[in-house]
């Protein structure tokens, strides 16, 4: 079988984190089998579909590096084909025109509720002739759903699932204004796009029962279905904004990297032994939809952040400078000259060890690009306010000014010798020096900081503190 999967979002909002996982699973399954991954924008809801949402979906997929094959399919552009399919079913006696008014449909539902039955359409026009239709009423087209037997889904994740056909009413295929319903459009598009596997959330299970009936009526083979459990919040409730159910662009803006996001989403419901960090190459090699669990996964922001920290540390320094530069330009008014970029690059190996996100990395790197005199945070001010610190920093400055070579070995030897002569611990020397050089109480190793800043900048920052 030639594997063809698809991701088919409705462009009514951002690319939700759950939808991103669905796209990832479809992409991985197609790539694992050497097949195709297609993108279809289901924009038939003209009132809610927006160009901004389409742009957000496309940019989100690109950021996640989930490339699709062939051109994007826009569902609304295929409305004429959907209409043709509905009328063909009427001609074959497998669908019919229904002339019920909205008021009549509501009366049916009210009566069913009063009698303790499920409120649904009662098939009033199923076997009537259109010649009996009242004047001035534009009909819908409804599918003649089998009244006996059952519809069965052989689901690759959930196993076999059955529903009695008597529980399903005759669904609308084509509305009175000739616009196709979601049920019809999805079936026609999936069939004509040669989709072999439909992988989507298990909230679509009821839709699948109905869509299988359309496939049966059309005489078409259906794709294989996989319904993956939804993602819940840490409290077990349906995922919402308070749990972190944001668009992927929000995570990008918070400083997450795409490989970390994909790694984390992959592990929500699927696993490969005890492996936590899984490369894109490994994911393509190992992924099989049959290995997805049946239980809902729980979104854990702390875990995502931990995975992201790993990928930040693994990134090469040049890449990280490129990624943090636009963030630094947003959070500071300093022009990033060639000199400052070189300084960032020198310091990146130490900075990235302490950062969990690109945002944190940029904030931690601010001290490298600040103009002098360096701003001091509250803790640094407290450290430097100690009455003995000025004398200590003058001695440090005198020693550093006489060093022949500004190298880590020389710096460490000189400062340790000074600490021993003053009979103080190295930390008692390093803390005020750190505050003077970085404006903070926490930073990479003090010798890394001095090497990164260089001789001239380091000495001038110490002098600034002694002066002011």
Automatic annotation (TrEMBL):
E.C. code: 6.1.1.17
Keywords carried by this UniProt record: Aminoacyl-tRNA synthetase, ATP-binding, Cytoplasm, Ligase, Nucleotide-binding, Protein biosynthesis
Motif ('HIGH' region): 9-19
GO-annotated biological processes: glutamyl-tRNA aminoacylation
Binding residue positions for ATP: 241
Pfam families (UniProt xref): Anticodon_2, tRNA-synt_1c
UniProt-listed InterPro entries: aa-tRNA-synth_I_cd-bd, aa-tRNA-synth_I_codon-bd_sub2, aa_tRNA-synth_I_cd-bd_sf, Glu-tRNA-ligase_bac/mito, Glu/Gln-tRNA-synth, Glu/Gln-tRNA-synth_Ib_cat-dom, GluQ/Sye, GluRS_core
Subunit comment: Monomer.
UniProt-recorded Gene Ontology molecular function terms: ATP binding; glutamate-tRNA ligase activity; tRNA binding; zinc ion binding
Descriptive protein name: Glutamate--tRNA ligase
Family, as annotated: Belongs to the class-I aminoacyl-tRNA synthetase family. Glutamate--tRNA ligase type 1 subfamily.
NCBIfam families hit by this protein: gltX_bact
All copies of domain Aminoacyl-tRNA synthetase class I anticodon-binding, residue ranges: 320-465
Domain of life: Bacteria
Subcellular location: Cytoplasm
């Amino acid at each position: 079988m030639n594997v063809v999967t698809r991701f088919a979002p409705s462009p009514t909002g951002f690319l939700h984190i759950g939808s991103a996982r669905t796209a990832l699973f479809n992409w991985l399954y197609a790539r694992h089998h050497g097949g195709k991954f297609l993108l279809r924008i289901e924009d038939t809801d003209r009132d809610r579909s927006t160009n901004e949402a389409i742009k957000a979906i496309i940019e989100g997929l690109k950021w996640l590096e989930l490339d699709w094959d062939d051109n994007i399919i826009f569902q609304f552009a295929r409305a004429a084909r959907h209409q043709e399919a509905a009328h063909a079913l009427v001609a074959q006696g497998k669908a019919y025109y229904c002339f019920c008014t909205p008021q009549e449909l509501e009366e049916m539902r009210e009566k069913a509720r009063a009698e303790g039955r499920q409120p649904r359409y009662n098939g009033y026009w199923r076997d009537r002739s259109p010649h009996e239709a009242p004047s001035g009423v534009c009909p819908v087209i409804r599918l003649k759903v089998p009244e006996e037997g059952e519809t069965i889904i052989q689901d690759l994740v959930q196993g076999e699932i059955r529903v009695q056909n008597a529980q399903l009413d005759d669904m609308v295929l084509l509305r009175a204004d000739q616009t196709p319903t979601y049920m019809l459009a999805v079936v026609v598009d999936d069939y004509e796009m040669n989709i072999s596997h439909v992988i989507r959330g298990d909230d679509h299970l009821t839709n699948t029962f109905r869509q299988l009936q359309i496939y049966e009526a059309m005489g078409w083979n259906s794709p294989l279905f996989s319904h993956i459990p939804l993602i819940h919040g840490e409290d077990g409730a349906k995922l919402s904004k308070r749990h972190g159910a944001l668009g992927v662009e929000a995570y990008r803006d918070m400083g997450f990297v795409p490989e970390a996001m994909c790694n984390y989403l992959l592990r929500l419901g699927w696993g490969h032994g005890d492996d936590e960090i899984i490369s894109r190459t490994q994911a393509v090699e190992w992924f099989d939809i049959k290995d997805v669990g049946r239980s809902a996964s729980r979104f854990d922001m702390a875990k995502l952040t931990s995975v992201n920290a790993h990928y930040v540390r693994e990134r090469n320094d040049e890449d990280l400078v490129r990624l943090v530069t636009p963030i630094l330009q947003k959070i500071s008014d300093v022009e990033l000259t060639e000199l400052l970029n070189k300084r960032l690059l020198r310091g990146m190996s130490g900075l990235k060890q302490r950062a969990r996100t690109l945002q944190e990395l940029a904030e931690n790197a601010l001290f490298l690009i600040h103009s002098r005199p360096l701003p001091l945070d509250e803790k640094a001010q407290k450290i430097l306010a100690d009455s003995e610190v000025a004398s200590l920093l003058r001695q440090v400055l005198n020693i550093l000014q006489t060093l022949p070579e500004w190298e880590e070995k020389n710096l460490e030897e000189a400062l340790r010798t000074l600490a021993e002569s003053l009979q103080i611990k190295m930390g008692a020397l390093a803390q005020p020096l750190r505050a003077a050089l970085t404006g903070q109480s926490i930073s990479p190793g003090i010798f890394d900081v001095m090497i990164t800043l260089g001789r001239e900048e380091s000495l001038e920052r110490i002098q600034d503190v002694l002066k002011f």
